[in-house]
Amino acid sequence: MCEFCFAPLEVVYDYERIASEMSRSSIAEGPRSIWRYAPLLPGGEDRVDLGAGMTPLVRAPRLAAELGLRELWLKNDTANPTHSFKDRVVSVALTVARSFGYTTVACASTGNLANAVAAHAAASGLDAYIFIPADLEAGKVVATAIYGPRLIAVKGTYDDVNRLCSEIAGEFEWAFVNVNIRPYYAEGSKSLAFEVVEQLGWQAPDHVIVPIASGSLLTKIKRGLDELVRVGLIDGHSTRISGAQATGCAPVATAFKSGTDHIRPVKPATIAKSLAIGNPADGFYAVRAARETGGAIEDVSDEEVVDGIQLLARTEGIFAETAGGVVIATLRRLCEAGVVRPDERTVALITGDGLKTIEAVTERAHPTMVIPPRLDEFQTQLDLLGEGADA
Amino acid sequence: MSVSVKIPTPLRRVTGGASQVNGAGNTIGELITDLERQFPGMRERLCDETGALRRFVNVFVGDEDIRFLEGLDTVLSDDAQVSIIPAVAGGCGPQTA
């Protein structure tokens, strides 16, 4: 960060040189991971790489029909090595950390980042200290601890954890991926924008719906699109970028709707824990990016979040964590309001796997029937559902 | 009112390396005035040209962010522990298409 005012620093690239060296065909010949875009990412050749990136971009006709959209795509980042988009940023952050000579990495996390740092550290022989709120979903705790890091559960909210890590980062010579390495780490998110454009046949979408926690992902989607233009991989873009928050933690949506860029912190109270950052450091930039691109930022209730998870699962066969539910519910809200227009080629980012947050949907997802192993029982129950042989 | 103030690493250059200092004031605003008196240059590190707290500076009284309290008007008690902690953003530079 800037030593004077604490504002974030930026990674700077030599775009002219990159433009002369990088082409659509050179990218096509690259690895099937975020590193096919290596010239536009920080870090050297000695990479910490579990294969993050190049996740499926799938057409979603059934969900599109439900929402009244002509063309909807889902970027399915549940397909990453630890099942969330955080593998992208962590692959970059640990690559940079190791090149700087760090032997210990650390992070403050709402869960997905914890999983990703633990796995990448294990695979690269780096020591890891991972700080999480003590009330995190069991799936995220287990899917971190299994890789063998030092896992510190802090009795407090994510914002408390983040504050503690800011203090620890000042005292220890560790690479905190989302504190002192953050400018590099955040750059990894651009790969989502790069991939979406490449997978759409080198065309930028008309509208992208992005979940907001710190606000970093949304701002980096814009930066990624802008950079593709800058290095000549696409001629231009007029992509609108909209953000999605849960009402129980919506400081960025509130600022957007109030017409201000001043983010007033909140105390989170939502099931969407991976988005529950009450004092989002990049919120200011996210509001600015949404406004500049003609997008919007909306928030949805926890009930709508669960509805969104179910809607996505039953129409398109993708089981998303709560952040994905926030995105789908927000997309529905924005379609109803006419903000997302029916004729727009729209992409929704599904950033994490539903198996990480099964608590959110357990009450709504259970066996249709529980029967003894007898055919007559099955037929009786089927009749009760109105689905028997005669139905 | 005398309170203890935790200083983050980037600000220790201003405090001569001290990680903890004492300051006086009935409110956070008065405390910053006193810190500026003791450690010239402190105010401009914490506040912008309008006098408001900088966007990426968080000030806590105990465990509470002063943005949840009365901001710079937050009243201090004698045993208060004040912490200055930078917010850490990823940033989105001036890059334009």
Provide a descriptive summary of the structure in words.
The complex is a heterodimer of chains A (391) and B (97). Chain A is of the alpha/beta class and 391 residues long. Chain A folds into two domains: 57-83 and 188-363, Rossmann fold; 85-185, Rossmann fold (3-Layer(aba) Sandwich). Helix content of chain A is 40%, strand content 13%. Chain A has helices at 15-21, 24-28, 61-67, 86-99, 112-124, 138-145, 158-169, 182-187, 190-199, 216-230, 251-258, 283-293, 302-316, 322-336, 375-384; strands at residues 57-59, 71-76, 104-108, 127-133, 150-154, 175-176, 207-211, 240-246, 297-300, 345-350. In chain A, the strands form two sheets. In chain A, strands 1-2-10-7-8-9 form a six-stranded mixed sheet, sandwiched between helices. In chain A, strands 5-4-3-6 form a four-stranded parallel sheet. Chain B is an alpha+beta fold. Chain B is built from two helices and five strands, in the order ββααβββ. The longest helix of chain B is centred in the middle third of the chain and has 11 residues, at 28-38. Chain B is globular and about 25 Å long. Classes of the chains: A alpha/beta (391), B alpha+beta (97). The A-B interface holds A 1, 3-10, 159-160, 162-163, 166-167, 170-171, 178-180, 182-183, 185-186, 214, 216, 219-220, 222-223, 225-227, 229-230, 236-237, 264-265, 267, 279, 281-282, 284-285, 288-289 and B 6, 8-10, 13, 45, 48, 54-58, 60, 63, 65, 67-68, 83, 85-93, 95-97.
SSE layout and pairings?
The complex is a heterodimer of chains A (391) and B (97).
Chain A lengths: L14 H7 L2 H5 L28 E3 L1 H7 L3 E6 L9 H14 L4 E5 L3 H13 L2 E7 L4 H8 L4 E5 L3 H12 L5 E2 L5 H6 L2 H10 L7 E5 L4 H15 L9 E7 L4 H8 L24 H11 L3 E4 L1 H15 L5 H15 L8 E6 L24 H10 L7
Chain B lengths: L1 E5 L13 E5 L3 H11 L3 H5 L10 E5 L2 E2 L15 E6 L11
Helix content of chain A: 25-40%
How would you sum up the global shape of chain A? Answer: globular
Work out the oligomeric state of the chains in this entry. heterodimer
CATH class of chain B, named: Alpha Beta
Number of strands of chain B: 5
Level-1 CATH class name of the largest domain in chain A:
Alpha Beta
Tell me the CATH architecture of the largest domain in chain A: 3-Layer(aba) Sandwich
CATH fourth-tier homologous superfamily of chain B: Beta-grasp domain
Structural domain tally of chain A: 2
Helix and strand sequence of chain B: EEHHEEE
CATH level 3 topology of the largest domain in chain A:
Rossmann fold
Q: Helix coverage percent of residues of chain B?
A: 10-25%
Helix run count of chain A: 15
Under CATH, the topology of chain B is which? Answer: Ubiquitin-like (UB roll)
